[in-house]
Write a structure and sequence with these properties.
alpha+beta, Fructose-1,6-Bisphosphatase, Chain A, domain 1, D-Maltodextrin-Binding Protein, domain 2, eight-stranded mixed β-sheet, five-stranded mixed β-sheet, 8 helices, binds 2,5-anhydro-1,6-di-O-phosphono-D-mannitol, binds magnesium ion
């Protein structure tokens, strides 16, 4: 049998993602009509967060699709305490692992606000033919071979990169096809939007408080206060900043002493997209893609968005 090229492999994974997200998009679009898929599942995940029914549905949909595509040997996701190894002959020979947040923005599911799926693909480091190991999952973001997200917003959109720029595809609901709508996306180097949960401001380090004051002052490059925009769905806040320019910040706060967002399936994939589009993603002190992961659900502080805005925010920190 002929060996697939890397390109063909990634196309197969991408097709799995479009299949699962098209199905999920249909469920989300009709969610208000189907009470059985809205509300809480009744379980708490490993992060101590109450799972929503759609979180669980999304997780299952993506796992089944990756399992079926034949070239993914295992996955890790926000909704599973441990990584999942696909234990069958075909999958054990798969070359790739996928990390994903099946439905980001859980608190917005029941209130009809944009949510999304975030994914990150790595080539396995363990031997083909065996089950994947934790080492396959704990690779630094620099090793990503593909990353992106699907945003279930006013339209459903897939944005991804294989390390050669960023492209956006919009789902045509009439045909079920994702069509190229945003070619070679570039994040503006500067912007006038900042996104942060300002309810936490009194808990933030002094340098960050000063940066937020700078955003609200006329001292920034626009000569006018920036506009605050916080959706509370990382993927939607990120997407707005990718298109219009802006910064998203989730810092260390006392309720989240290591930050709130997860390195492997939230921060790394969006950092990859940001960099590929000319933006920047850091912990405030270090490039996100250089962080060496130590555990599956590791959290980090997150500063991501327009290059000059992230640099400026970092300059305010000690
Ligand atoms: P989730 O994956 O459970 O939805 O958690 C991640 C979310 C981000 O989408 C969002 O930016 C942030 O957590 C919101 O947190 P907060 O409600 O503390 O502002
Ligand atoms: Mg999330």
């Amino acid at each position: 049998m002929r060996e697939f090229t890397s390109c063909e492999h990634l196309a197969i994974i991408l097709e799995a993602i479009t299949t699962a997200s098209t199905e999920l998009s249909q469920q989300i679009r009709g969610a208000g009509l189907h009470n059985h898929i809205l509300g809480q599942e009744g379980r708490v995940n490993v992060q101590g967060e109450v799972q929503q029914k759609l979180d669980v549905l999304a997780d299952r949909t993506f796992i089944q699709t990756f399992l079926g595509c034949g070239i993914v040997c295992g996955i890790a996701s926000e909704e599973n305490d441990e990584f999942v190894a696909f234990d069958n002959e075909v999958s054990r020979n798969g070359d790739f692992v996928v990390m994903f947040d099946p439905l980001d923005g859980s608190s917005n599911i029941d209130v009809n606000v944009s949510i999304g799926t975030i994914f990150s693909v790595y080539r396995r480091v363990s031997a083909k033919g065996s089950l994947p190991t934790l080492k396959d999952m704990l690779q630094p973001g620099t090793e990503q071979v593909m990353a992106g997200y699907v945003l279930y917003g006013s339209s459903t959109m897939l944005v991804f990169s294989v390390g050669k720029g960023v492209h956006g595809f919009t789902l045509n609901p009439a045909t079920g096809q994702f069509c190229l709508s945003h070619h070679a996306m570039q994040m503006p180097e500067n912007g006038r939007f900042y996104a942060m949960n300002e309810g936490n401001i009194l808990e933030c380090e002094e340098g960050l408080v000063r940066y937020i004051k700078y955003c609200q002052s006329r001292e920034n490059q626009t000569g006018m206060p920036y506009s605050g925009r916080y959706i509370g769905s990382l993927v939607a806040d990120f997407h707005r900043n990718l298109i219009k320019g802006g910064i998203y910040i989730y810092p260390v706060v006392s309720s989240a002493p290591e930050g709130r967002l997860r390195l492997l399936y939230e921060c790394n994939p969006l950092a990859f997209i940001a960099e590929q589009a000319g933006g920047l993603a850091t912990t405030g002190r270090q490039r996100i893609l250089d962080v060496i992961p130590t555990h599956l659900h590791q959290r980090v502080p997150y500063f991501v968005g327009s290059k000059h805005m992230v640099e400026k925010a970092m300059a305010f920190l000690d």
